[in-house]
Each structure stands twice: as structure tokens, then as C-alpha cells.
Amino acid sequence: MGAIEKFQEIYENRGDYIRDWKSRNPGSKVLGYFCTYVPEEIAYAGGVLTSRLLGSHEIEDDSAPHIFGMFCPFCRDVLAQGLQGKADYIDGISDGNCCMHLLQAFEAWYLNVRPQPKMIRADVSCTTQTARGVDYLTGELKAFQKDIEEWMDRKITVDDLDHSIDVFNQNRRLLRQVYDLRKADDPPISGLECMYMVVAGQLMDKKEHNQLLEEALVELDGRKLDRETGSRLMLIGSENDDVEFISMIEQKMTMPATVVIDEHCTGTRYFLGEVIPDEDRIAAIASRYLDRTPCPAKDWPKRIRFDRALQLAKEWKVDGAITLQQKFCDPHEIDMPSIRKYLEDNGVPTYFLELDVTVPVGQFSTRVEAFLESLMLDIL
Amino acid sequence: MSKLTRYPTKTFECWGMAKELRMDIYNKLAQKASGEKDWLVASGGTEGLIGLPAGLGDDYVPFGGEPYGASTGAMGKSQEMMAYCENKGYARDLCGYCRNYLGSAFGDKFSFGGKYPHPDFYFQLHFCDTHGKWYQPAAEFTDSPYFVIDGGAMYRWPKWNESKERKQNKLNYLVQQMHDSIPWMEEVTGREYDDEKLGEAVYNEIMCTSKWAKCCELNKHIPAPMDQKSMYAFYVVHVLRRHTKEAVAFFDSLYDELQDRIAKGIAAVEYERYRLIHNSQPPWYALNMFRYLEDFGVACVGSQYDFMLSGGWDYYYDEDDVARIRAAEPSPDLKQQISTRDGALTALASWYLEYGLQARSFRFPMLERRNIDVAIARDWNCQGAIMHLNRGCEGWAVGQLEVRRALVENGFGVVTYEGNVADPREYDGPRTFARIDAFLESQGLKKIAT
Fold it and tell me: Is the pTM value of this prediction over 0.95?
């Protein structure tokens, strides 16, 4: 099995990977994180494996007694994994003061999932834009560091932090290298493969992910996909590890299309932007989290995300963008009309779809195909 | 079944004052829109720091998005306003108040009549996911200036591993942002900021929220001196204008009147025999529900929502480790604290972080929030709860089902109904009343023949 296939395997069998990792790293612990604003570098520096908690995209009703049905399908799906005992490898959980939807899943997990995990909060600021953000977040992350030290019963040294920052920055660089290959007229890697690649990185030890990425880059050298690239698409929106959706676009349309770039937290929003070295390592980490492209929930009063999304669209030469959001997500819902108009005013056609736990493949394929047809008309 | 007692009832003497203070704000906004008088209008959420722009002058009028969204719902105008919003592509499951507000702005319609009163600037305190986003499209629509203070780094609940350093960091963060907002406001309005007016506004804001909490505490009495609908009419005074001395005077009057009613045995509900808390905002277009409950001798005596908007409550564990709430007490040094800009801002920020239980509940939605409703139900002598599973407000709906579980585990019956704080298309009246009938029947209550 090559590295590219390995990403898929880890994504699909994350529990097996993590249990194996624990057996190989006795004394270590696994921190399940609900949001990409959890400062993973600090936990990793303390010998903790950070692993994102995701859903399974299967119908469930386990979360129904705990979270009202008007909250996003993702938060309910994530909680269901805990309630069903599918994440029994988790020792602790962390939140990043994310959206209220996921905060519910986070606290409901703590209340109801057994064995009860250690709760380690990171009260990250709600916006990334205030002039006071770096000072505040630095203070908060130093407190988070102490929490990790207490939990792991060890001191996190400057060397630990430097090593961790190196590993994470390396990871970001390697992911960026793979993404850059997608700028080619015929990308050597599909959008689906890339999704597996990024999400596997959120689940696994970054050092091991880096090794796989290096192998993948070798595999991608000169690789040609046995398919027509077709329309070059961008995915924009909320959390999206919906492999069924992306495989529908790339494999089940009568007209060819390839996802060449994305702007969501299981893609570029997660890994673009490195920690820039600074005397105060924690301040450097804080700055990175404030400088990354923000989640819409933290993107105010200005809309920083829009320009960055457009920049990606231009660099990766997309023909159109599919804007996706988890149903019931207010921050995305408020952004949606504006980002669509912004992109369209700048020459990027858009199409809007709403994500639920499962994908209505029949309906979505008809709709996406109509969008692809409209893109073809533009080309003609 | 409880014994039937008929209590004397009486209309509130301060009712007219509450109505007048409320309409004063909306009349001024209408004047702004018509051009009759150019009030200095700042628009944003009303759940924190509405006194901050008061230093810009006595002509400052806050235009609060949430109470406006609620009033629009109560006046039956939601569908009109929401249509303006939804026609621009906004989702139908977006916050109900937000859709009413944005729809008014986009449609240039003011629910109280006339055109939408476009504010001079937008000014928001953020602790709900929708807060910071809400006024982005509004400000962009008219190219108006917009400032947001991040109030989402709240103090944690007691016992949840928060060091003094962590709390101080949160306080500094908030105070510094408040400081930053003042030169920004000076720049966008071209006015000089008056720290003395800020001090007065902060003093009034703290006194108001504390006094409202003390009024709510009086509702522990049996029979309750305030019914749910009256509470809605009263608390809106501090939601809309708690930074004013008129609001302080109002709550002082209300407190005295409540004490007088208790002394004279005056009830809000004539045949009170069963007490409920109503969890979450009501569906504002369907307040007849509370009159219907009264037909059974049921009094709704309060909840997190009507007690805790804008703060004023202390959540603590007593000597037996039982979670309780009590009205927060302003510092005896408050007048001294507000004598400088930094002192006033620090006093207000501390009050918000310590006693803003609504904001804390939004950011930490389950673990301790469950205990608040249990504390209210227990200490306000309730037998059960009616819970609005509210599709129109994420903030008040977070954690609801765990609150429900906690109430049930502590022996309080709970009836739920689905609806939307502002969107009548998501509320089924007959079904709701049928659920209430079934629930009250299970509690041994039937309608009282009158």
C-alpha cells in the first residue's frame, strides 16, 4: 500500500491507528479535539497525541437526548461517536472556545461518555481580529500549557516546544507542497485523496504524517491520474470530511470535475500559516492561530476570509466554487450570501449546498451536474 | 391536587412607567428615521455594555437588535421583515431576531412605523456565535462603521480550574478592548468622549441589573407577585436602557411595589396553585400561552432567561455544596471606582465577567448551566418546568436538553414544546396547548371554572 492509500486507511480505521500508537508510546495520552483552534503544538510538546474528533456520516439517534435537533449535524454526529463507544481511545478532550454547537458536543461528551475523559479547555478568543488578541491568547495558552503539564505530570521545556513547532511547521509545509501540485492543469492527486490526506493528519501523530507526506510526494512525482480533470472546482465552507460528497463530484458525474482547492477547516484553513519563531514560543503559537484564515465564527468585524478564499481560487485557477455549510450554522449562514456575491463579482461562479449527516447523492449529483453544465456554458 | 385559594390581584402601578420607558426608545428611533431629530444612534446587541457609548453625549440612543427582534415578533411583523432578509439569500434557520433586524434594514421598514432608523454606527459585544456576525451585513449595507468587543472569553464556572492569572488575563483583555473602543467612537462620531457620563452610565448599568435580580428574588414568595408576562414587560427596561437614571428609578419603584404586594398578599395569578419556570425566550407572537396556563392556576415565576439577561446574578456553591444563585451586590466602592475612565471600565468589565451568567452559559453551555434551572425551580418553589425548544435562538437553546434532564433527575416534571422566538412559521399553537393540557393533567390539574 502506498502512502496515498495509507491516508485513507488511517482515516477509515482511526481507532486502530491510535490504539497502535498508544501501544508504541507507553505513558502518552490522547487528547481528542473538537475544533482546529486547540493549540495542538503545546499538547504535542507535552507528549500528547492530538486527534480531531469527527463524525461517521451515519444516521444516529444517540445524541438526540443531549442536543436539540436544531444544532448542526456535525456536532451531533461527533457526540454520537463518543456515546457509541467508538472513541474509547480518548483520554482527554479539548475545545478551543469554538462555536456553541461544538461546545455543546464537547460538554455533553464530558457529561455522558464513559470512561469520562479529562477536560482541558482552551479559552481561545472569539475573534482573531482585536488588537489585544495576541496578548490575551498568549496568556491563555500559557495557562493551557500548565494544564497539559499537570495532566502529563511533566514540564514542557523550550526544547519540547521547539521540537513540536518544527514538526507542525514541517507538516504544514509538506501539505502545502502537495496542494501546490494541484495547480497543474492535470493535478496528480484528486480532491478525494487530498481530503483523506489532510484529515488523516488531523487524526494521527504529525511526525508519522510527515513521513507519509514525504513518501506521498515521491509517489506524486510524475503521477498521472487515469481520469479527465474537467472543471476545476473549489470547495468553500464549514467542516467537511464528507468523502462521499467529494467522490460523487469526482467519480459519479457525467461531466468530469476535480476539486483542486478548498477553504475549510479540514483543508487549507487548518494547515496554511506556520508558527513564526519568536523568543516567546507561546506568543509565536498564539500569533499563528490568530493569523491563520479564520473560521467564520471568529471572522469579525471584518471579513478576512473572503480575500483569502478568492486568492486561493485565483492561484488554483478554479472554474467555479461549491459553497457548502453544515445546516444550522449561523456564522456560515451569515457569510454565505456575501461570500457568494464577492466571489461572483470577482469572476468565480458559485453554487450553494447544505450538508447534513448523510449526502443525498441523487439530489446533489443532479444539482452539481447542472452547475458543471453552467460552467461549461461559460467556457463555450 | 393543590388546595384552591383565591388571592387578591391588582394591576402594577409601575406598568405605565415601564411602557413609557420602553416606547421612549422606539419613539426616538422613529424620530431619527424620519429626520425629526438626529439622535446619536448606536446599534448592536443589548446584552452587555450598552452604557459605553453614553460618554458621547446625552442624545445617545441604543438600538438593540434583540429587543427589536422580539418586539417585531410580538407585533406580528416577523414574516414581513424576515422575507426581506430571506429574499437576499439568508437561511430560514438563522437566528430569528437577526432575521427580523436585518430584514428591517434591508427593507427599510421599522416595525414601529416608518423607515428603518439607520444608526450612526454599529457597536457590539460578542459572546454568542451570531453576535459578531449579525451586524457585518447590516454595516456593509449602508457602509457604516462597526466595532465589536470580544466578550466571549468569559470567566469559567466555579470549580472549573481557573487560576487567578487566567481570570486577570480575561479581565485585561476585555478592559483593553473597551478602552480601544472609545477613541474609535470619537473618531467615527467626531465627538469628544465624556468620562463623567461614562461613569454615570456604568453606575446605572450595575445598579439596574442588581436591582432587577433583587426584584426576581421577591418572586420566591407564594403567591408570586409577578407573573411571566409582567416580567417580560419589566425586564425590557434594563435590556433597553439600563445605563440611564430613569431605569434605576424604575427598578427602585418596582422593588418597592413588589414588597408592598407581598405584604398585602397580592398575587399575579389569582388562583396560583402550581408554579413553573419557563425555560428560554417565549414565542413572542404567542404570549397567550401564559394566560392559558393561568386558567389552570399555574404561575410561571421566572427562569434563567428573564432573570439573567444582562447579568446581575451570582452563581455560587453554599456550605453544603449546593449550587445556588443570588442577586449580585454592587461594590460599596462603586462610586469611587467609576470616577476615572479605567475605573469605570474595569468595574463594568468585572461585573460582566463575574455576574454575566447569560454570557457564561452561552460559552460553557451544559455542565453548570443545568444547575441554574434546578436552583430556580427549587428555590422559587416550583413544581415543574415548561421548556421552549427554541429554533430561533442558538444561545438559549444550547444545553437545553441537558437542563431538561437535570430538572427531571431532580424531581421536576418538564413539558417541552418546539417553536421559534420570532418566527411564527415554526410554532404550532394547538399542538403546544395539547401538550400543556396533557402535562398539567398528569400533574392533577384541570382548568379552573371561573
Answer: yes
